[in-house]
Design goal:
It contains one helix and 13 strands; from the N terminus they run βββββββββββββα.
Length: about 200
C-alpha cells in the first residue's frame, strides 16, 4: 500500500494517505513492465494545501478501470471551490475549473491506457487524449487549492477513480504546444502508450 507518492520535482508536493483502508496499492508489471498505482472505490491521496493558480498544465498517463461513468482522477483539496478537476464521465475525458470542458475527439474504453493533457487557463483552456487534436474552450477560472488523487475533493468514495495512475506531470505554468508534445512523447515512450 502507498502512504506517500513522492514528488520528484523537488518541490515537496507529495500527496499522502495515513488511513490503511484508503491507501492505493502498487501493482507490478502493469504497463510496459512498469509499476502502477491502483485505486479502488475508497482509495485516494491528499495534499493540503497545494496552491497552484491558473494557468496550470497537467499531463498524465493512466489506465481506465471497468467503470468510466463518473470517475475523478485529480481534484482540489478540501477547500471547496478552489479546484481544477480532471475526470471521466460517460466515456469522455473532461476537466472542470468552474465550467466543464469535454474532449470530443476520443471515446474512452475500459481497461485501456491513455495520456491526458489538460491546460487550465480560463476561456483558453484545452484538453486532449493521446495527442489527438485538442478541444479548446472555457473551463472556468478556479485555482487549485490542495490536491486529491483518485477521488473528488469530498473524499467520500462517491466519485472514485477505479483504475491505475501511472504518472502525472503538473506544471504551475502555461506550457507551449511544443512543450506539451514533448511531455506526451516522454510518457508515450516510457509507458508504451501510442499517440495519434
Amino acid at each position: 500500500a502507498i502512504t506517500t507518492w513522492i514528488d520528484k520535482s523537488g518541490s515537496g508536493n507529495s500527496p499522502t494517505q495515513a488511513t490503511g483502508a484508503n491507501q492505493p496499492t502498487i501493482q507490478l508489471g502493469v504497463q510496459n513492465g512498469r509499476r502502477a498505482m491502483r485505486f479502488d472505490t475508497t482509495d485516494f491521496l491528499g495534499l493540503d494545501p497545494a496552491d497552484w493558480t491558473q494557468p496550470l498544465t497537467i499531463i498524465g498517463a493512466v489506465i481506465t478501470g471497468t467503470d468510466i461513468t463518473n470517475n475523478v482522477q485529480i481534484d482540489g483539496g478540501t477547500t471547496g471551490t478552489a479546484r481544477c478537476v480532471s475526470f471521466v464521465e460517460a466515456s469522455n475525458f473532461r476537466i472542470f475549473g468552474g465550467v466543464t470542458l469535454t474532449d470530443t475527439a476520443v471515446t474512452l474504453a475500459t481497461s485501456t491506457a491513455y495520456i491526458f493533457a489538460m491546460v487550465f487557463n480560463g476561456t483558453s483552456s484545452s484538453i486532449s487524449v493521446n495527442n489527438n487534436t485538442a478541444t479548446s474552450g472555457n473551463a472556468g477560472t478556479q485555482d487549485h487549492g490542495g490536491l486529491t488523487l483518485g477521488e473528488s475533493n469530498a473524499r467520500d468514495g462517491s466519485f472514485s477513480w477505479v483504475g491505475d495512475i501511472l504518472e502525472y506531470c503538473i506544471y504551475d505554468a502555461l506550457l507551449s504546444a511544443a512543450d506539451i508534445d514533448r511531455v506526451e512523447r516522454y510518457l508515450s515512450s516510457k509507458w508504451n502508450i501510442a499517440l495519434a
